[in-house]
Specification:
Helices cover 35% and strands 15% of the residues. The protein is an alpha/beta fold. An eight-stranded mixed beta sheet has the order 1-2-4-3-5-6-7-8, with helices on both faces.
Length: 386
C-alpha cells in the first residue's frame, strides 16, 4: 500500500485559489543530495524529453580559461553560451578574439551552436543590444540547461530583446563556495571586455537569476562594486537565495521580531511537497566550505554590511517561500542604502510554482512582471523633449 504525503492544512489554506490544482498534484520532494548525479541525470532526461523552441534565436558556446583575478586557476575552463535574436547586428566574437586563444569559441567555428555566424554581420555603429548574464537556479547543485536549450534565456532573448549569456558555473557539492560565484564574476568580466565583438552595449549589462541564481546575481553585483569591475545596469533577483541563516536556529534578522514570527509561521505551514527551510538549509550545507561557520557576503549577500553603490535592483518573492523574508529584508536594506529597488510579492505561491502551473494567470503575470522590469531597465524610455 502506497503512503500518500500528508497535506498540511495551513499550507493549503494559504495557496492561491488558481494554484490549488497544481498544489494538490505536487509530488513529495526528495533530497537531491542523496544521489546528486542521479538527480542531475533525471533533470537532464526531463529536459531532453521536451526540447525548447529556438525559433528566432541562435546561440554559440565559448570556453573561458580560469586564470587571474579571483578565479581559482585549476587549469579548467568556464563554458558560457551566448543567445541572441537571429539577425542581430554584431561582429563574430570568434574572429575578433583570434589573437586570444583563451577567449575563442567552443571548438572551431563549425562546432558552434545554432546559426550564429549567418545571423551576424560585421556591425553598424549604434545598433547594439543590452545583455543579461543569466545564472540558473538549482540550489547551487543542479539546474544547468542542455546546450542551446536554456528556456529562460531563449524567452528573454526574444521578449526583451537582448543578448543573454548563460553561465555553466561549477556545481556543489563537488565545487563549494567560492567556485560558482567566481565563475559568474569571470563571465561578467569576459562579457564586458568583449562587448563590441558580441554586439553588446557595455552601459546596459544586467545580472539576473532565480533562486540560487538570484543569490549569485546579488553576489556578483557586490563583487563588481568592490573590485571596481564592470558597471551593471541592474540586478534582477527572482525568489533569491540570499541568506544561509534561513532554516537555521538564527533568524534572518533578530531585531525584527515580526519578520521572524512571520518566517517561523511560514515554515510551520509548509509540508513535504514544497521547498521549506530544511531544504534551504541543506543546500547551504552542501554549498559552503566545510567548517565555515558564518558565510561571507559573496556567498550569502544578506551578510553584506554595506549595500550602498550597488546597481538598481528588482526583487521578486513568493508568499509560501521560506526565503521570502530574507528577500524582503535585503530589498529594504538596499532601499535604506539609497539603491533604487522595485519589489513584488506573488500571493499564495510557493517557490518554483511556475514550473508546475505555467499556464495559470498567476504564473504568467509573475513572468510578465519579471521580464517587464528587466526590459524597463535595459531599454529605458527616451526623455521627453520639452
Amino acid at each position: 500500500m502506497s503512503v500518500q504525503p500528508e497535506t498540511n492544512d495551513r499550507t493549503a489554506m494559504r495557496v492561491h485559489p488558481e494554484l490549488v490544482p497544481a498544489f494538490e498534484a505536487l509530488p513529495r520532494i526528495s533530497d537531491p543530495y542523496e544521489d546528486i548525479e542521479a538527480a542531475r541525470a533525471g533533470f537532464h532526461e526531463l529536459l531532453a524529453a521536451f526540447p525548447a523552441d529556438r525559433t528566432g534565436v541562435c546561440s554559440e558556446r565559448f570556453d573561458i580559461p580560469r586564470t587571474g583575478g579571483g578565479a581559482p586557476a585549476d587549469g579548467g575552463t568556464l563554458t558560457v553560451e551566448v543567445y541572441r535574436p537571429e539577425g542581430a547586428v554584431g561582429a563574430d566574437p570568434g574572429a575578433a578574439q583570434g589573437a586570444d586563444p583563451g577567449a575563442g569559441g567552443h571548438g572551431d567555428a563549425a562546432e558552434r551552436t545554432g546559426s550564429a555566424r549567418n545571423a551576424r554581420s560585421t556591425g553598424r555603429a549604434g545598433n547594439v543590444l543590452p545583455a543579461v548574464l543569466h545564472f540558473h537556479g538549482g540550489g547551487f547543485a543542479l539546474g544547468r540547461a542542455l546546450p542551446g536549450q536554456d528556456r529562460v534565456a531563449i524567452e528573454l532573448c526574444r521578449t526583451l530583446p537582448a543578448v543573454i549569456i548563460t553561465v555553466e558555473y561549477r556545481l556543489a557539492p563537488e565545487h563549494r563556495y567560492p567556485a560558482a560565484v567566481e565563475d559568474c564574476y569571470l563571465a561578467l568580466e569576459w562579457v564586458a571586455g568583449r562587448a563590441a565583438e558580441l554586439g553588446i552595449d557595455p552601459a546596459r549589462i544586467a545580472v539576473a537569476g532565480k533562486s540560487a541564481g538570484g543569490g549569485l546575481s546579488a553576489a556578483v553585483a557586490l563583487m563588481a562594486r568592490d573590485r571596481g569591475g564592470p558597471r551593471l545596469a541592474c540586478q534582477s533577483l527572482c525568489v533569491p537565495d540570499l541568506d544561509d541563516r534561513v532554516g537555521a536556529d538564527a533568524t534572518v534578522d533578530k531585531a525584527a521580531d515580526k519578520a521572524a514570527d512571520e518566517a517561523a509561521e511560514t515554515e510551520r505551514a509548509l509540508d513535504a511537497r514544497v521547498l521549506n527551510g530544511r531544504g534551504v538549509r541543506s543546500s547551504w550545507q552542501h554549498y559552503l566550505p566545510e567548517g565555515m561557520t558564518e558565510a561571507e557576503a559573496y556567498a550569502a549577500p544578506a551578510r553584506a554590511t554595506e549595500l550602498s553603490g550597488l546597481p538598481p535592483a528588482h526583487v521578486l518573492v513568493c508568499d509560501l517561500d521560506p526565503m521570502r523574508e530574507a528577500g524582503l529584508a535585503y530589498a529594504r536594506r538596499l532601499m535604506d542604502a539609497g539603491v533604487p529597488v522595485t519589489v513584488r510579492n506573488v500571493p499564495g505561491a510557493w517557490h518554483g510554482f511556475e514550473l508546475y502551473a505555467p499556464d495559470t494567470r498567476v504564473a504568467k503575470e509573475m513572468t510578465a512582471h519579471w521580464t517587464g522590469q528587466l526590459r524597463a531597465a535595459l531599454h529605458p524610455a527616451s526623455p521627453a523633449v520639452v
